[in-house]
Structure formats: C-alpha cells, structure tokens
Design a protein that fits this description.
Layout (H helix, E strand, L loop, with lengths): L4 H11 L3 E5 L5 H10 L3 E5 L4 H7 L10 H9 L2 E4 L10 E4 L14 H13 L5 E4 L7 H10 L11 E4 L18 E5 L2 H11 L6 E4 L2 H32 L3 H8 L23 H10 L6 H11 L1 H15 L8 E5 L14 H11 L3 E5 L23 H6 L2 E4 L8 H7 L2 E4 L13 E4 L1
Parallel strand pairs: 1-2, 1-4, 2-3, 4-5, 5-6, 7-8, 9-10, 9-11, 11-12, 12-13
Antiparallel strand pairs: 6-7
Helix pairs in contact: 1-7, 5-6, 8-10, 8-11, 12-13
C-alpha cells in the first residue's frame, strides 16, 4: 500500500529534509522564518515588497530589534527570501503572516488573506501544509481560506493540510520570544492537526492543540480583547483618579502587591499596534452576523479611542496655566512608535495626536530614536523627521509630550531642560528633582 500524504509529510519533518515557507516577512513572518532555521529546517520567505528580500540577501535587517548578524546566521542555516510566488511548491509548509487591518468603516479587511490564498491555490501541491497565522475572526480558515485552496482540485486532510495557529509575538520582549511562547494549533481535520503538531512541535517548546481552527481563532481574539478591556478600565480610572488628585500609577503599584486575583495593567495615550486596536472589531463584526451585540467590548473600545483627546485636553490645560494658547505653541513629541523600544508605528496613538495638534495650529516636532521619518498613515504623510534631543530643542519647546517611553531617551535631561512635560507613560517618575513642571495625562 502506498504511503499517504500524511505519512510522507511526517517522514519529511522527522528527517529535517523540510522547507518551511512564510508569506509576509514583517514583524511576525521574519522572526517565524528565522525560528525555522534555528530548529534545523530550511526557510523560504515570500514578500511582495522587493526591498525586503534585497536587504535580507545583503544580511541587512529592516526591523530594529533583529540584527544583521542574526539575518546572516539564519541565511547560513538555510534561510532565503523572494518575491517569486511560483517558488511556493518548494515549500513543504506555508505560513500566512499577512496584515488583517480594518477598512474605512472599521470592519474586517481580509483582502490580503484572500489574495494570498488565491496565490497559494495556483501553486498548491500534494503534501503541503498551509497555516494561517494572521489574526482574524472565527471561521476565516474554514469559510474563506479552505474554499479558495480547494479550487486547486486537491482535498483537505487527504492531499493537503490546513490549520490555524495564531501568532503570539511580543516585539522586542526578551522574556517572551520565539520558541518559548506556547503555540496554539487548530487543524481543519485530524490529519491536518497531526501535520502541524509534527512540524510546529519541533519549532516550539510547547504546543497547545485544540479541536478546530475556530477555537484557535477565537483564542487569539480572547487574548487581545482581555488586554483591551483591562487597558480601558485603567484608562477610565486614570481620568477618575486625576479628577480626585490621586496618582493612578501609585494606585496600581499598591494593588499589584496582592498575590492573587489581580493582574496589573497600565494606562496610556491610546491603543497601538497591529492587534489590540483592531481585534475587538473583528469579533464585534462577526457577532453581529449572529444577531448579537458585544456591548462590553465596544464600550472598552470607546474608552480607549477617547484617550488621544484626553491627552490633548490635558496638554491644553497645562499650556493654559503658562498663559500660552495651543495655536503657535512648540510641541515636542517624544516617541511615535506604538510601544517602547520598537520601530513599529502601526495604529500608534501618536499619529492621531499629532494630526489633532496640527489642526489646532500647534508647531509639532518629534524625537524617536527608532523612527527617523514620520510615517505615512491613513491621513497622509506629514514630511517631518525626528529631531535630535538636545538641550536647545528642549529649551525651545513650550511643552514636551511623552507618548512612547523608549528606554534610550535621557529623561533626566528632559527634566532638566524642558519647561513643561506632559507624561502619558509615567516616564518621568524616576527623574529626581526635575526642573520642568510635570503633568500626568
């Protein structure tokens, strides 16, 4: 009796004569491809941006926390990248790591997943494993991706394998990175689950198989909605405690000493990144298809999206105390990336805050050691660049607005030379005896 496609797949994984393909070489896909090589497999990355394979071929990185040396090491171990999707048959597995943004109506935009599935279906061969990793609503793997792949004439679970395994990247967090993060796996059929268990079980220290892709898809949304709701809670409490003259950061530090029943979350200027500002809308959209309203989740979204306006209100009040109008005031923003020590600006609240300040007539500049050029977003490009953080720049600013608390920023110098600092991250808490007036927002 001839070997089944599953038997052949398992044998290839066992022998390490195996190529893991990754479509989308961004903040999720590139680290994933590098993990494949660390585990002793070949890796073949695909991206429509020709600049990325060109840089990677030269041993250069376009992500600040991945070094050129790491790229060179991965290349020696079997990593390559290309824009040629006709090379997809070379891959034994294909992990889809493409964006899943929202459209102009704040509804799921799955065009990148759909286009990628169509491209795969053109080249799909027997024995391949396709893994969707992009965050999406429950049912995407089965309802969108599977029918497209079956246009190839191949049968899932018999000729090819399909699974969903949500990405769990926390960029530039050395405590939780790479193979140490448990990986949730949901196969479309029992054979599909066996295939992904065999491969990803050799990549990650712990795998978490679940009954189907829908469970895996929902688990990712739950993780991020949990964070979204709790961040909304502390953001709302920030507003309340500020009115009461209470420091919310001190409150959280006191509460976190409880050894059970409490997990600390921290307020900020609004949500950023590719997951938390977006994922709740994927679930609320899907819930409406079942005639259900997710009022609690939507309320949390309203609280978080109101934070940029609250920050600007606090800035206006602080400038008013100095008898300065916002129009014409020189505002220096510290940090435009969505989180500390990364160069990722997707959905960063700094972008919304900057546009609002410009509409109010402020003279806005920014400093970010990881973002040299202000990125073009939904509202277009501004054509401004990061300025050097010198004593002169600080002294000439009417207010310094801390949006992202990069560790490399010399906050003691900010406290020494700035006149007014509006701090959304509690970054100035470690500065002893600052000469600047500090306002929390």
């Amino acid at each position: 009796m001839p070997e089944s496609q599953l038997d052949l797949f398992l044998r290839k994984v066992e022998s390490h004569d195996f190529t893991g393909g990754v479509i989308g070489l961004g903040y999720v896909g590139l680290p994933l491809a590098m993990l494949f090589t660390e585990a002793g497999f070949r890796a073949l990355g695909f991206d429509i941006d020709a600049r990325k394979p060109e840089m990677l071929a030269r041993g250069e990185s376009y992500i600040n926390y991945i070094s050129g040396e790491e790229i060179a090491t991965a290349t020696k171990k079997g990593f390559a990248s290309t824009t040629q999707f006709d090379r997809l048959p070379e891959a034994d597995s294909i992990s889809i790591c493409v964006p899943t943004p929202l459209d102009e109506h704040r509804e799921p935009d799955l065009k990148y997943v759909e286009q990628t599935a169509i491209e795969i279906s053109k080249h799909l061969r027997k024995g391949q494993l396709v893994i969707l990793e992009s965050t999406t609503y429950p049912g995407t793997t089965e309802e969108l991706v599977l029918p497209i792949l079956e246009r190839s004439g191949l049968t899932v679970g018999k000729d090819f394998f399909l699974a969903f395994s949500p990405e769990r990247e926390d960029p530039n967090n050395p405590q939780f990175s790479g193979r140490k993060i448990p990986k949730v796996l949901g196969g479309q059929t029992p054979a599909c689950l066996e295939a992904i268990k065999a491969f990803y079980g050799r990549i990650y220290e712990k795998i978490v198989p679940v009954s189907c892709p829908r469970v895996a898809e929902m688990s990712k949304l739950l993780e991020n909605i949990f964070r979204c709701v709790n961040i909304a809670l502390v953001n709302e409490l920030k507003v309340v405690t500020d009115a009461m003259g209470i420091n919310i950061w001190e409150v959280i530090e006191a509460a976190r000493t409880k050894p059970f029943g409490f997990s600390p979350f921290y307020p900020g200027p609004g949500l950023g990144g590719h997951c938390i500002p977006i994922d709740p809308f994927y679930l609320t959209w899907k819930a409406r298809r079942y005639g259900l309203n997710t009022r609690f989740i939507e309320l949390a979204g309203e609280v978080n999206t109101s934070m940029p306006e609250y920050v600007i209100h606090k800035l206006l009040l602080a400038l008013n105390e100095d008898r300065k109008p916002i129009s014409g005031s020189r505002i220096l923003i510290l940090g435009v990336a969505y989180k500390r020590d990364v160069d990722d600006v997707r959905e960063s609240p700094a972008l919304e805050i900057t546009h609002r300040l410009l509409r109010l007539g402020a003279d806005v500049s920014y400093h970010d050691p990881y973002v040299p050029d202000y990125p073009e977003g939904r509202k277009g490009a501004l054509g401004i660049h990061s300025v050097d953080l010198t004593p002169e720049v600080l002294q000439q600013s009417d207010a310094v607005l801390i949006i992202t608390d990069h560790r490399s920023v010399p906050y003691d110098q900010v406290g020494k030379y700035a006149k007014l600092v509006v701090d959304t991250r509690n970054a100035m808490a470690t500065v002893k005896s600052p000469q600047a007036r500090i306002v929390q927002a």
